[in-house]
Amino acid sequence: MAVQPIRLFGDPILRTPAQEVVDFDKELRRLVADLTETMRDAPGSGLAAPQIGVSLRVFTWWVDDELGHLCNPSLDLSEETQDGEEGCLSIPELAFDTRRAQRVVARGFDMHGEPVTIEGSDLLARAIQHETDHLDGVLFIDRLDAQTRKEAMKAIREAEWFGEPAPTVKLSPHSISAKWL
Ligand code: ZN
Q1: Does residue 129 form part of some domain?
Q2: Could you confirm whether 93 is annotated as catalytic?
Q3: Does residue 172 form part of some domain?
Q4: Is residue 170 part of a domain?
Q5: 113 CA distance to ligand 1 centroid (A)?
Q6: How far is the CA of 131 from the centre of ligand 1 (A)?
Q7: Of 16, 37, 98, 115, which sits with the fewest C-beta atoms within 10 Å of its C-beta?
Q8: Structural domains of the chain, count
Q9: 85, 131, 151, 164: which is the annotated catalytic residue?
């Protein structure tokens, strides 16, 4: 297991739809371990494989002190929505109000290839939606209304990290909270 550098906005892998997991092998288990360790180190509440440079449909979460992972997710979203601040470890230090479904039922597989169903609400539901978006090459800023997205893009262009070659992301202590995904 090793902490991996987190890819940042501008890296094309973040815009590339990830491949389905086919082999539930030792390599996949190592990927889940790396994702978990990198997420806890950041720290973040979720992390998707493309964020550490692996284009596979796998993500992890760390919400309410519970660690989990899911491969090849498919989601059923509630009609009820939630509003709240959301941030992304690949877009450090910027957070914006982002509307998400309040509850989600996620079906997929664990790292051993066993089918699993995860039901979540609030932050877990937000994390699952955010990470599943990553697997489709979608970022949370794509979910913002036009005006907020414009502000986000301006903040990104002005950010110190923008254009840097994949540094290891470390959030400053004041910005640590549950919203980093
Ligand atoms: Zn993210």
Answers
A1: yes
A2: no
A3: no
A4: no
A5: 25
A6: 6
A7: 115
A8: 1
A9: 131
